[in-house]
TrEMBL record:
Gene3D superfamilies: Enolase-like C-terminal domain (3.20.20.120), Enolase-like, N-terminal domain (3.30.390.10)
Domain Mandelate racemase/muconate lactonizing enzyme C-terminal: 150-243
Annotated protein name in UniProt: Dipeptide epimerase
Keyword Isomerase set for record: yes
Species annotation: Novispirillum itersonii (Aquaspirillum itersonii)
Molecular function (Gene Ontology), one example: magnesium ion binding
InterPro entries: Dipeptide_epimerase (IPR034603), Enolase-like_C_sf (IPR036849), Enolase-like_N (IPR029017), Enolase_C-like (IPR029065), Mandel_Rmase/mucon_lact_enz_CS (IPR018110), Mandelate_racemase_C (IPR013342), Mandelate_racemase_N_dom (IPR013341)
GO biological process, one term: amino acid catabolic process
Cofactor: Mg(2+)
Chain sites annotated for binding Mg(2+): 196, 222, 249
Domain of life: Bacteria
The enzyme's E.C. designation: 5.1.1.-
UniProt xrefs under NCBIfam families: racemase_DgcA (NF042940)
Keywords attached to this entry: Isomerase, Magnesium, Metal-binding
Length: 352
């Protein structure tokens, strides 16, 4: 599905050319509270790239998080964005035209969202109104627990439960995932769990764990097998051994990937850094709904500027995982408003 497909949300109202837009790009490092560990490793700061488009009076911003798993780097994303300065200065670009000039990924996300923000401020019309969301509502986001010892993860889960957080995302790897899940569930039995292996399991490991997951509070399993090595999921589906939905993350980037997921996955994780921005995310959401997938809207670890456009995609979906700012030592001001894990739509001073 393309962004102009009739079944996709309308993008009408963007001009064919804005003309004379200038682009500036910068990097920022945002400290993470402690360390964030998944099956591929740990990090202590979120390195983001911010794109600004301006006509000298009105400016729009977008944020992305380059991800090494997809062959991205801060330097590479900066170079991709800087290469777009000429086209922007010459004639302007719409989000639709941008998708023809740049591949889906972090760089296009930053520029796509900056263009949406710029147009909203220029016209005095919120992005939410332009895409037909008249009354966006607060959503409940998952709160992520990185990989640690079972005891530490249990203690964190207990604190989250005491704070009234209903949905936890539990990072696990190949090493003793069951012990960690048992410890978390025992400490927070009232919480629903999203289990995220980040490609860290084998098919045999998944098959062994599947019967146990419902009793541990799991409501979703995210990307258990490596992308490109997930055909074995079809066997579990055929045999009726899927006890909780399996969600594609690394196996999914854009709507073009959906046909290969049918018969394997029951849900998908939409991240703007994968789809190349709000434009691609809206198209992916429309296509996935039409094909019967359940939907999670997720994020990399970044600031509220990166989460703000995703909040619009997150309206009415099954699962939301936009807790990136909650994992940081500090966030932008103004940022998204979080009350526990209930997050409100962005104010115009932030984005859109």
């Amino acid at each position: 599905m393309s962004p102009t497909d009739p079944s996709a949300p309308s993008l009408s109202g963007f001009p064919v050319s804005d003309g004379g837009l200038r682009l500036s790009v910068r990097t920022e490092a945002w400290p993470i509270a402690g360390a964030f560990t998944i099956s591929r490793g740990s990090k202590t700061q979120a390195d983001v790239v911010v794109a600004e488009v301006t006509d000298g009076t009105v400016s729009g911003w977008g944020e992305c998080v380059p991800y090494a798993r997809y062959g991205e780097s801060v330097a590479g994303v900066m170079a991709e964005l800087q290469a777009m300065a000429g086209p922007l200065a010459a004639s302007g670009l719409t989000p639709e035209a941008l998708s023809e000039r740049m591949p889906a990924g972090a760089a296009r996300n930053a520029l796509d969202c900056a263009l949406w923000d710029y147009r909203a401020k220029l016209d005095g019309q919120r992005v939410m109104d332009r895409i037909g969301i008249a009354d966006p509502r607060p959503v409940v986001t998952a709160y992520t627990l990185g990989i640690d010892t079972p005891e530490v993860m249990a203690a964190k889960a207990a604190r989250a439960a005491a704070d009234g957080l209903p949905l936890l995302k539990i990072k696990v790897g190949a090493d003793n995932p069951l012990d960690r899940l048992k410890a978390v569930h025992a400490a927070a039995p009232q919480c629903r769990l999203i289990v995220d292996a980040n490609e860290g399991w084998t098919l045999e490991q998944l098959a062994d764990l599947m019967p146990l997951l419902p009793g541990l509070g799991a409501v979703l399993v995210e990307q258990p097998l490596p992308a490109g090595q997930d055909a074995g999921l079809e066997e579990l589906v055929r045999d009726g051994r899927i006890t909780v939905p399996v969600c594609a993350d690394e196996s999914l980037h854009t709507a073009a990937d959906l046909p290969t997921l049918r018969g394997r996955y029951q849900a998908i994780n939409i991240k703007l850094d994968k789809t190349g921005g709000l434009t691609g995310a809206l198209a992916l959401k429309a296509a996935a709904l039409a094909q019967g997938f359940r939907i999670m809207v997720g994020c990399m670890v970044g600031t509220s500027l990166g989460m703000a456009p995703a909040m619009l995609v997150a309206q009415g979906v099954d699962f939301v995982d936009l807790d990136g700012p909650l994992l940081l030592s500090r966030d932008r001001v103004p940022g998204l408003q979080y009350k526990g894990t209930v997050v409100s739509p962005p104010v115009p001073e932030l984005w859109g």
